[in-house]
Each structure stands twice: as C-alpha cells, then as structure tokens.
Amino acid sequence: MATSNWAWLPPELFSNIIDRLSVFDRVSCHYVCKSWRKAAQEKPVRQPPPESPWLMFADPNKGCNFYSVADNKLYRMNMDPLPDIRNYMWIGSSGGWLVIADECSDLYLLNPITRTQIPLPSILPLPSITAGSRDHEGNLNSYLIPFHSDGRYSLEYNIEEIRHYLFSKCKAAVSLSEENSWTVMLLFMRGQRLAYARAGDDAWTAVDHGVCKDLILHDGLFYALMPSHTHYIVETWDLTAARPTPIRIKVAKSRTDLGRSYPYLAMSPSSPGKQLLLVKRVRDHENQFEYRTAGFEVYRLDKSGRSARWMRMQSLGDQTLFIGSNSCRSLSTRAFPKLKRNCIYSTDDIWKKAVHFPVETRDIGVCNLEDGTMAPCCPEDIPRLNWPPPVWITPSLR
C-alpha cells in the first residue's frame, strides 16, 4: 500500500487548505517542511477569521505563550530569529501589533505572530529628553530628563532603565499592504506628553496637551482622555491628515471623579452607531505594591443634552471588555459567543510594581458586572514569566 506524502501536495490544493486555517494553524505550517513554509509565506487569498484577544506571556524558554480565553487553549511560539523577547518592554498593542522597547530603550513595532519588526524613530528628539554621558567610543550611555518643570535640574537614567520611567502607553495603526504604512501615537513622561510618528518620519512630532490618562485607537482615529479640575477633555486625532489637529469634547465630571481609580477609554460596538466608554477600575490597596482589582464601573458618553456627560451603565449587555496597560477593547459576544457576556477581562497595569518586583504574580482576572464577582481568567499552571507583564493581543497575519 502506497504511503501519501503530504509535503508534495499540489500548490493550488495546499493554498486552498491554508486559506481555511486559523491564524495559529497557518503559522504552524511553517515548521512542517520547506515546501509548506514556502506556501504558507505566500499572501493568502483569504484572511483567517477574526480572533478574540489572546493573553500573551513571555515563556521561560525564550519563546512566547498565548492563551485564548475563548477557546481555553494555550499556544506556544518560538520567536527565533528575534532577540530574546523577555528582555523587551511591551508598551502597547493594537490589533496584532506590539510596540516594544528593547534593552537600549529603542522602540519597534512587532507582530509576534509573523515576527515582523519595524524600527520606530529615536526617542532622543522627544521633548524634555537630552543625551547624557557617552563611552570612549562615543556610544550613548544615558539620557537626561528634567526633574523640575523649569528644567534647572535633571535626572540621569541609563539607556536600559529610562524605558521604565519614560513610556506609559502606545497605540499603532499598521497597514502592511501595498502602501506599507504605519502610524504610532506615544504617551510618555508618565502621561505628561504625547507625540506621534508616521511611516517615513525621521523623528517624533510632539503635541501640546494636558496630563493624559488614557489613549486608544479605533477605526484609524486616536482618542485621548485628559482630566481637569472641573471636567474631562476627550481629544480625537486623525493622523492621516497633513496637519493633524484634535477635535475636543468637554465632558462634565459630576459623579465620575476618578479619585484613586484607574480610567480606560473603550469604543462600544453597540448599534446604532458606536459609543465612547469610560471604564473605572477600582482596587483594594494595602500599599502601592500590594493590591487587587475590586471591581469596575462603566460609563458611556452622552452628547444628547446641552453639555456632554458620562452616564453610568448598569450592564454591558452582550458586550465584553478586555482592558490592561496596553489596551482596552470592547467586543460583542454575539460575534464571539465563547466569551462571557457582561464581563471585563483585565490584566495588570501598574508598571512601578512590574519594574521593582518582576517575578511577582500579576493582577489578572475576569469581573462579572452582574454580581461583581472576580475570578481567574486563565489557568495558574501556564508556563510563563511575569516580566514583561502579560498583555492582550489580537493575533493577525497582517
């Protein structure tokens, strides 16, 4: 009886098969044999069906683990030939892309599924950042950051540790189709500064604004949340314009004062139209490093009256939210029925603890808004490292 050799499938048949595979199964084809790797690398006729967010962990053995909460599956991926991703700082994610800072605090876009890596402009021209000391060969050893607003005093950070102080959050719009374009908005200096860069830019462009609490990306637009004493300001940025200028909405604070809570913006997929959400994360604190998530409050932006305001939502209905330091995303459980409705999946977002206690367990779980209960959202025995802190990422081949 003749044995079949799957390595020699006709190319057109293999392409027909691979177009029906999930993201992870397509990537797995790379490791079967050379002919499958070549076929899998070709541009697919159809994109795989959309995935719900995966929780991405650094693996003790240099690779990455991805946990799908919808399917209760663990996927492991070798990151060769990339450098050890355990040494990177994961600043933000948008879709299937991470914004990372390496050991020299240089920034990159990274798709961990395809391993595509794109260098971003240097941080040195950013406002308030100047070059520090250099070695005998002229290589930069450190950066200087002003300690006071008048700039009279500066703190010196070496090139590896400055990333822990400097970067707060980053969002990226990436399109690697024929135009090979990307746009990144960076929140840095602990929310005091915003800057953006686009494909072809040699430097970041800084923008003036108040202290920024959160930054999200939706349908190509960037949204920033800025609190003041009397109201919030929501800025909307279209960075495809030649000279981007924000559209500002003032929102009364009333009973939505943040206090010691942690705010996130999200865009609801509800119909008709879409609604901007404000999510408040409430924690029980023993001290700045000992805490746990106690619950969430969700508000929607109401612009129907004379002035915009945040309206408390008692339920998300068929929606579910994924939040963390890197992202906040709303999904419909009608589109993703394996996810829990009216729930919030959350990861840890306090960088100070992550930096000072890199091996500590992270504050990860799922909150049921109906009864306020918290529960684990992934198995405790997943092989993982707690540095860099786990992030939500939506796997994509684009």
Outline the structure in words.
The protein is mainly β and 398 residues long. It has two domains: 1-48; 50-393, no CATH class. The chain has five helices and 28 strands. It has helices at residues 11-18, 23-28, 34-41, 162-166, 351-356, and strands spanning 54-58, 64-68, 73-77, 89-94, 97-101, 107-111, 116-119, 130-131, 142-146, 154-158, 167-175, 181-188, 193-198, 205-207, 214-218, 221-227, 231-237, 247-252, 262-268, 275-285, 291-302, 308-313, 319-323, 328-332, 343-346, 365-368, 374-375, 391-393. An eight-stranded mixed beta sheet has the order 15-16-17-18-22-21-20-19, with no helix packed on it. Strands 24-23-25-26-27 form a five-stranded mixed beta sheet, with no helix packed on it. It has a four-stranded antiparallel beta sheet with strand order 3-2-1-28, with no helix packed on it. Strand 21 (291-302) and strand 22 form a beta hairpin. The longest helix is centred in the N-terminal third of the chain and has 8 residues, at 11-18. The chain is globular and about 70 Å long.
